[in-house]
Amino acid sequence: MPLSHTTEGALVHTMTVQQHTQQRLAVAGGSPVAASPVPMLVVRLEDDEKQRVMDVLDSGMLAQGSKCAEFETRFAEADGAKFAITCSSGTTALQLAYEALIQPGDDVLVPAWTFVATASMVLARDATPVWVDVDPRTYNFDVADARKRLTPNTRAVVATHLYGNPADIDNVTSFAKEHGLKVIFDAAQAHLARYDGQPIGCFGDASTYSFYATKNMTCGEGGMITTNNADLADRLRAVRSHGETTKYRHDLLGYNYRMNDMTAAIGLVQLGKLPGRTERRQSIAARYDAGLADLPGVQLPQATPGAEHVYHLYTLQLDPALFTCDRDAFIEALRAEGIGCAVHYPGAASRQPLFAHVTTDQPPISDGLGSRVVSIPVHPSLTDEQVEDVIAAVRKVAHAYRGGAG
After folding, report:
1. In which domain, by residue range, is 280 found?
2. What are phi and psi of 206, to 5 degrees?
């Protein structure tokens, strides 16, 4: 769904942005750019999702059943994988994948810049996360840095498709093959992204997904694991449900990490809407790219070469040397202009107290990002006018905190 700009409208907007840029910041008593607040996120379930849930409730079959099976089939097809396994959350998806592919005592290469669960579930497997730095442009796993961090006990690599941007899959998989490592992709934020023209479920030993409320598609909660390995899929299904291989036979240590059919019913509807909503996210991101490209001190997100970014988040990186404020003051000023924004994340995962006993050094790029990043709205509910307000507000704040230069 492309943004509806005419040449005349674009000229009018350029004039409006210039006018806003010259105005006093709202945080200092000026008028805000946005007449009504622009939300950072909008979570919306529509009548068709609600009806599918009611259908399940009316059926009386509430636990894992036919809807979960249908969701698995359709998600696997859309993601380019042979098998998909539903589960209760993105975190349990990681735990199940690690349970099957990692052994206690293993060292596991994990990006230092990611959500905590990517690494905490390594600890839950009684394995050790070994921190790898990220590319400062894509925010994803840096294979060159990983080579420096190999240990004699390294058995697996976990790469996050962060913010909806696929990792450098070719380099990650080549590196892993060279060293005999298992590969897990944390795709919690990258539903149906593509790499080298193919869905990301084609790659690695397993990929894990989250359907948390704020994700590109949501079930409220829920998760999925995709794989092309039939034996691995069987093991994941067993561990997901008490280690049960046949009715009341438990060959493995397992858990109750099943999804229910109400959750899956929502997921089926959301999956059908995802391509259109992704297209909208991408068109909004393209407008941001055009509207903010010439802004000194503001680095725009960069897709991994060969990848199709699905923009779970559109994350800016500020250069503190070019501004008279810090990132938090920049955010405060944006919010005063009526623009919702957020920080993903305020610090590297490797800085979490949880990992104090395993951390030896802090990868420098990841360690510095927490004070520089700010995410602006990119959800598909944004109107064209709201997108223009976001651009105008970012430019206004950046202009003011560069002392009016540029």
Report:
1. 7-36+274-400
2. -160, 150
Confidence band of 10 (pLDDT split at 50, 70, 90): very low
- Is residue 41 one of the residues assigned to a domain? no
Assess whether 120 and 262 both reside in one domain: yes
How far, in Å, are 139, 147, 148, 301, 362 from residue 348 at the CA level?
11, 20, 19, 18, 9
Spatial distance between the Cα atoms of 158 and 141, rounded to a whole number of angstroms: 9
Residues 6+ apart with CB under 8 A from 319: 296, 297, 298, 299, 372
CATH number at residue 317: 3.90.1150.10
* Token pair belonging to 70: 């249908």
Going by pLDDT thresholds of 50, 70 and 90, the confidence category of residue 361 is confident
Residue with tokens 């060969």: 306
Q: How far is the C-alpha of 263 from the C-alpha of 257, rounded, in Å?
A: 13
- Which backbone phi and psi does 154 adopt, to 5 degrees? -70, 125
Prediction pTM value: 0.94
Q: What is the DSSP string of 91-121?
A: HHHHHHHHHHH--TT-EEEEESSS-HHHHHH
Same domain, 20 and 82: no
Which of 220, 240, 269 is at the close of a domain? Answer: 269
Number of domains in the chain: 2
Alpha-carbon gap, residue 374 to 332, rounded angstroms: 11
Task: Note whether 329 and 28 are within 8 A (CB).
Answer: no
